[in-house]
């Protein structure tokens, strides 16, 4: 088959690799129908995730069709259309029993495109299939479903829930890329008083307004002063860092109010300063985390019901699978291309239409 293979910092290629097969009784092999590129993949290409070995097939988000299952798999069977989660879960270890699948001790966690071959390929082997793939209703398109593999559960769990967004809160989201936009959309579910989006790119700020941001501000337009003005000098109740660089993390800690919360979602490849000389007395809570994807079934129901922004709001570029390297270039050059989420290989499917009830 063909796959996108990582060859070391800054090096990748779309090339022939061996077909995956069943290696464990809990495995499923999926024919990839739709796949996307994550900001974390760009961090891998920059060398920020050194545990990814050269020769690894990248990618951890996909939708596809089950073609083969191991003898222990019970939840799906060949022919099923499924969502491949970015997190795999053994279901037996201490952390899995606590719904902390990202910290799985039994061979799961973030392994696809990280510790084992991933989803940016024509086929992918998914371990622990009973807990790591989700059957899809026909009412959810492949483009919509692939947004649920990573960005929506990450935004919801690591940003909104960890940040404890509540009614009336002032919420600042620093970084209006795909995860930042998903954070804005899912924060709206908790009726905050206002959501402020911060980014350099005007196209991303426009997208932020489209998914529910009340206020947008350029990262070069003194967002700290704006937050100060809008909160009468108090600061934001919740600040979500969705970029992954030291400067934005430190900025988030300056914009949060006393007894506020900073939820770090961004993937960091360099150290950031923690200014305890100004934070020690403010009772600020700072959370970090890898997504666990326990919320995926709920988010899938919400997507099917039309309660979440779908692909038209977030997907800006579409490619075939053989255009993988071009898609990486477009996604990595988002400042010039305006790329948000890119989807490769999505195909059509038959949607079920429900007739309206007679009055």
Automatic annotation (TrEMBL):
Show where the Enoyl reductase (ER) domain sits.
10-344
Matching entries from Pfam families are given as: ADH_N, ADH_zinc_N
Q: Does the keyword Oxidoreductase apply?
A: yes
Q: Which domain of life is it from?
A: Bacteria
Which spans of this chain does the record mark as coiled coil?
none
Asked whether the keyword Transcription regulation is assigned, the reply is no
Span of the signal peptide:
none
**What protein does this entry describe?**
Alcohol dehydrogenase catalytic domain-containing protein
Organism of origin: Streptomyces mutomycini
